[in-house]
Design goal:
The protein is of the alpha/beta class. It is built from 8 helices and 9 strands. It has one domain: Rossmann fold. Helix 5 links the parallel strand 6 and strand 7.
């Protein structure tokens, strides 16, 4: 019997989760909950486990130990979850057709797709680029198109892996504005970033990872104003965590 689609996968709970790759521990005893509300931002040095945590919460990786539940269920098809990878691949078709393909893959009724394509292009500010080949868009424009494709799934939860990496300040601001708009629509955003300034601008909650462990987590204002751990103080100050 198939598992019925859920209205929302929230809260997502990871309980003592361990994930291995080639015998190496990538996540080590992670226990954290992602609940509805403002964006949760994952920060930490390269290799700290941010991407793996996103993939695990999406349901793309099975833990070697521990449990992951979506609204209390250990088996939950990702019908209300979407993920945007750091380097998304553009299909060899127009911007509009890229979104149309994502809508078809999500099972959207054919008659509704043109309207939804237009809505999603408008949301990410690409109305004027509907007919342009996606691979001819700039890096920032491709990231915005990738966001629109992820939103074609009508997710309750959206995972973003470094969506502004390598973008200039103007393109970064555009992506951040879209993230705020997405969050204002009630979609839970869980996002990894290397940029502390971006984390301060977007986060409702911060999770600091280091060597596959959660070092500190909590509301963003308190984390940045009065970090509780030495590692957090060092990271905020720009010192290296080794």
């Amino acid at each position: 019997m198939s598992t019925p689609a859920r209205a929302s996968d929230l809260p997502i709970r990871l309980s003592d989760v361990e994930i291995l790759a080639g015998g190496v521990t990538i996540l080590d005893g992670i226990s954290i909950t992602f609940s509805a509300g403002a964006p949760t931002i994952l920060i930490g040095p390269n290799g700290s486990g941010k991407t793996t945590l996103l993939r695990a919460a999406m349901g793309l990786i099975r833990p070697a130990r521990g449990r992951i539940t979506w609204d209390g269920c250990e088996v939950s098809p990702p019908t209300r979850r979407a993920i945007m990878f750091q380097r998304p691949v553009m299909l060899r078709r127009s911007a509009a057709a890229n979104i149309g393909y994502a809508l078809a893959a999500a099972g959207a009724p054919r008659a509704e797709r043109p309207k939804r394509v237009a809505e999603l292009l408008s949301l990410v500010g690409l109305d004027a680029y509907a007919g342009r080949p996606a691979r001819q868009l700039s890096g920032g424009e491709q990231q915005r198109l990738s966001l629109a494709r992820a939103l074609a799934r009508d997710p309750a939860v959206l995972f973003l892996d470094e969506p502004t990496a390598s973008l200039d300040p103007a393109a970064t601001k555009t992506i951040e504005d879209i993230v705020r708009a997405i969050s204002a629509r009630g979609i839970k955003v869980v996002m990894a970033t290397h940029d502390l300034g971006e984390a301060k601008r977007l986060a409702g909650e911060i999770v600091l990872l280091h060597r596959g462990r959660v070092i500190e987590s909590g509301p963003a204002p308190g984390f940045f104003a009065a970090p509780a751990t030495g590692e957090a103080k060092k990271f905020i100050a720009g010192e290296l965590l080794v």
